[in-house]
Design goal:
The chain has about 300 residues and is α/β, with parallel strands linked by helices. The chain is built from nine helices and ten strands.
């Protein structure tokens, strides 16, 4: 079975932007695109007619820009989470619309969105309607950076001691496919500063030296762990930056100039509670760029 990219659509500007982003990514990967609309309760009568019109409208718009793209549609009844997770089982990527700071839109609100992202077996990308990526156009055949990244870097968040092979592989593949630079960010926690320390310059210098040493060691370990991927993707210019601070804040700042921010979601055996992690949760709500959440071991 050919794996496809799936986009959740509900007629909102955010989901339309997500569908456009998904279409360009499907073209770059040479895979089909599937548009899915979910509705609580039976979809019948006027409701079915309007949903079908909306799906056909989005499909028609995308085919105007990508006439060779294989696009199918599906109207699902019942739980939006169940419909999207069912599609995600055979998908290479699931793409959803996001309003930005606060919540996801349409049928993806609150706990529904987090359950979908937290349980999907494939990477999930969240796309903002205000992002430039809603301007659909074909990738440049000359080899220039594609419309998905528009020359902006891909930012990858990695942690230690286990960076996550699937997570890093996704980012390297994406950067290679789109001719984008890869910026790898590691956040080291700040050393504790006690109230009296600010009056003791020597102690403050020791703290700064300790933080610098931790950053240097983190960068060394990450560069070492990434050597196999650098060898597999020699065309990707990848730079590691270890910074001191809160991971969520550093990544949101890095995302301001990014074409895509890639974060990980640790696969858990437990079926109780949120599955996204606090860093992924923070960037989902506040990062201005599209965000990819990649499940990894």
């Amino acid at each position: 079975m050919v794996r496809q990219i799936v986009a959740g659509v509900d007629g909102s500007p955010e989901s339309t932007a997500a569908a456009a982003w998904a279409a360009r990514e499907a073209v770059s990967e040479n895979v089909p695109l599937r548009l899915v609309h979910a509705s609580r309760g039976p979809v019948g009568g006027t409701k079915r007619h309007l949903a079908k019109e909306m799906l056909v409208h989005v499909q028609t718009q995308l085919l105007e820009t990508h006439p060779s793209l294989d696009i199918t549609t599906r109207m699902a009844e019942g739980s939006a989470t169940d419909a999207l997770l069912e599609e995600a089982r055979e998908a290479a990527l699931l793409v959803l619309g996001s309003r930005g700071i606060g919540t996801l839109v349409g049928f993806l609100t609150g706990s529904v969105s987090l359950r979908t992202i937290g349980k999907a077996p494939c990477p999930v990308v969240l796309v903002r309607s205000g992002h430039a990526d809603h301007e659909a156009q074909e990738p440049d055949p000359s080899g220039a950076p594609s419309a998905v990244t528009r020359g902006r870097p891909v930012v990858l968040a990695l942690d230690l001691p286990a960076p996550g092979e699937e997570l890093a592989e996704f980012a390297f593949q994406f950067a290679a496919r789109h001719g984008a630079k890869l910026s790898i960010v590691h956040a080291s926690p700040s050393a504790p500063v006690y109230p009296y320390a600010s009056g003791i310059p020597s102690m403050m210098m020791e703290i700064e030296d300790l933080e610098r040493e931790e950053r240097e060691e983190a960068a060394r370990l990450l560069n070492e762990a990434l050597e196999p991927l650098r060898a597999r993707y020699p065309g990707v210019e990848a730079a590691v930056t270890a910074q001191t601070g809160t991971a969520g804040h550093l990544l949101v700042e890095a995302a301001r100039e990014a074409g895509l921010l890639v974060v990980g979601r640790k696969i858990r055996d437990s079926v109780v509670g949120p599955h996204t992690g606090h860093v992924a949760h923070a960037v989902l709500h506040h990062a201005p760029s599209p965000v990819a959440v990649v499940p990894h071991h």
